[in-house]
């Protein structure tokens, strides 16, 4: 890629100029290319991203082929809601880990996407991999988007960062939230008493988080189907915020269990169904964002998975 500096660009940082000229690449990616010595001006290598450009200079950027990603592709069935050259949208099942980690080195969503997308992955940050823009917990089901190009990854990440992407979840919670709708606001950070958990922490700690909730359906005084719309995207946000106001998710053994007070008056079979529910009853129902190339607003919705549907059916018969 070669271009000549115009008068209007004179004095600007090299990485900013390249980012404006090459929207298919994130600024961080172009900065890395500069630091790797892959950008030259009239034959002289430039390695400082902050280099101030001069009118008439001709800059050449050499972009290497995307390197193979270390995790291997694995043929894992995926429910694809939409796919094009820039991105792929899936309905993730509960039980599928999103990204390889020490405890889950393979059989993840990333492994599945590498196999499914193949050569259509042009590379994220110079590595042939899908760009994970946001994550769902292993035992949370629902809509996710992954980028197939650097441009899409950068544009989608910005939307999540700027809170312009729309996300709505459905959760079955213990009790009947009061009021029936509201806004939960509280910084989320590591629980100081249990490092495996997140918690609402004091001012100046953690990261700001806000969740808007409303009751969709009541099941007596024992449980409710609640919609939660996220303003932010913090780890375990819905689970932490609903627990914080006293209504933890059914099946969430980390944040809320079936106490005697919660099950008082419930038929034994309903108690058993709620106690034995194998995961947090949480589903990412809706995801909406602007397409990174066309700018078109795209929206994807999915129904509750069968396990949550069955749980709701049992609760309806109380």
Task: Give a structural overview.
The protein has 318 residues and is of the alpha+beta class. The protein has three domains: 60 residues, Structural Genomics Hypothetical 15.5 Kd Protein In mrcA-pckA Intergenic Region, Chain A; 95 residues, Pseudouridine synthase, CATH 3.30.2350.10; 141 residues, Pseudouridine synthase. 22% of the residues lie in helices and 29% in strands. The strands form four sheets. Strands 6, 7, 9, 10, 11, 12, 15, 16, 17 and 18 form a ten-stranded mixed beta sheet that branches. The protein has a four-stranded antiparallel beta sheet with strand order 1-4-2-3. The radius of gyration is 23 Å and the shape is elongated.
Please indicate the count of domains: 3
Overall number of strands: 18
Low-confidence regions: none
**Could you describe the largest sheet, including whether it forms a barrel?**
10 strands, mixed
Q: Count of helices?
A: 8
Secondary structural class: alpha+beta
Could you please say which CATH topology of the largest domain applies here?
A: Pseudouridine synthase
Mean pLDDT: 91
Q: What CATH architecture of the largest domain would you give? A: 2-Layer Sandwich
Q: For the record, what CATH class of the largest domain applies?
A: Alpha Beta
Estimate the helix proportion, in percent: 10-25%
- Large-scale geometry: elongated
At the fourth level of CATH, the homologous superfamily of the largest domain is Pseudouridine synthase
The rounded Rg comes to 23 Å
**Beta-strand percentage?**
25-35%
Element-level helix/strand string = EHHEEEEEEHEEEHEEEEEEHHHEEH
> What distance lies between the first and last C-alpha atoms, to the nearest angstrom?
67 Å
């Amino acid at each position: 890629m070669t271009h000549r500096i115009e008068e209007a660009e004179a004095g600007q940082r090299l990485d900013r100029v390249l980012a404006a000229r090459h929207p298919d690449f994130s600024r961080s990616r172009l900065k890395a290319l500069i630091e790797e010595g892959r950008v030259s001006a009239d034959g002289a290598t430039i390695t400082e991203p902050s280099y101030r450009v001069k009118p008439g200079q001709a800059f050449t950027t050499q972009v290497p082929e995307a390197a193979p990603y270390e995790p291997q592709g694995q043929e894992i069935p995926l429910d694809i809601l939409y796919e094009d050259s820039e991105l792929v949208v899936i309905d993730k099942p509960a039980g599928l880990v999103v990204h390889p980690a020490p405890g889950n080195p393979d059989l993840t969503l990333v492994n599945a996407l590498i196999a499914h997308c193949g050569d259509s992955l042009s590379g994220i940050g110079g590595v042939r991999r899908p760009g994970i823009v946001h994550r769902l917990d292993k035992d949370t089901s629902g809509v996710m988007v992954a980028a197939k190009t650097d441009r899409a990854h950068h544009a989608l990440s910005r939307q999540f960062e700027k809170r312009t992407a729309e996300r709505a979840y459905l959760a079955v919670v213990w009790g009947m939230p009061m009021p029936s709708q509201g806004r939960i606001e509280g910084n989320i950070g590591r629980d100081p008493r249990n490092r495996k958990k997140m918690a609402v922490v004091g001012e100046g700690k953690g990261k700001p988080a806000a969740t808007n909730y409303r009751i969709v359906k009541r099941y007596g005084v024992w449980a409710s189907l609640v919609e939660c719309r996220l303003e932010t995207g913090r780890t375990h946000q819905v689970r932490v915020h609903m627990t914080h106001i006293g209504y933890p998710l059914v099946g969430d053994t980390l944040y809320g269990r079936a106490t005697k007070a919660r099950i008082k008056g419930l038929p034994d079979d309903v108690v058993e169904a709620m106690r034995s529910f194998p995961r947090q009853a949480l589903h990412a129902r809706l995801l909406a964002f602007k397409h990174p190339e066309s700018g078109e607003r795209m929206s994807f919705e999915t129904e509750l998975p069968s396990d949550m549907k069955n749980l709701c059916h049992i609760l309806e018969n109380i």
